[in-house]
What does this fold into?
Amino acid sequence: MSDLITAARPYARAVFELAQSESSFAVWSDALGLMSALVTHANMREMLDSPKIGADKKAQLLIDVCDGKLKPAQQNLLRMLAENGRFALLPDISALYEMMRAEAESKIEAKVKSAHPLSDAQQQSIIAALKKKLGRDITLVTEIDATLIGGVVIRAGDLVIDGSAQAKLASLGQALSH
It folds into this structure.
């Protein structure tokens, strides 16, 4: 897996720099998402893995399926990936690009798992605290996980804050055993 990310990084960097120079972050996000979805679809994957179909035809197939939704530079990316046999990198290229875009736009997505639904006030409090700590605009994604019993687990980039009842009980257990 890390080999794919390493191989995807130069492509993602090139796409990011192009998008940045053209002020077209959203356009590239949409295109990379579409291309990633296509190359991971089971039926499409079967055709793209076929040695009977040449690289040019594989790229053209994807371009045709996108039905005019890809700009010339995005079509060129598909052709280059086809030529190098690198379609499998598209999901990682897309993910790396989104991280670069978020960094450039000073945004970060924070995922919050909680045992119970969070009120709007609780969500706003978490957003404010994370914004103060990270110095970025926060997009909050919430998820209910009844196994937490209580509390929340927050993940924002490399930051993990585990305020779940499970974590507190585990910590208490360790303290008592020493």
Observations:
- The two ends are 39 Å apart (CA to CA).
- The mean pLDDT is 90.
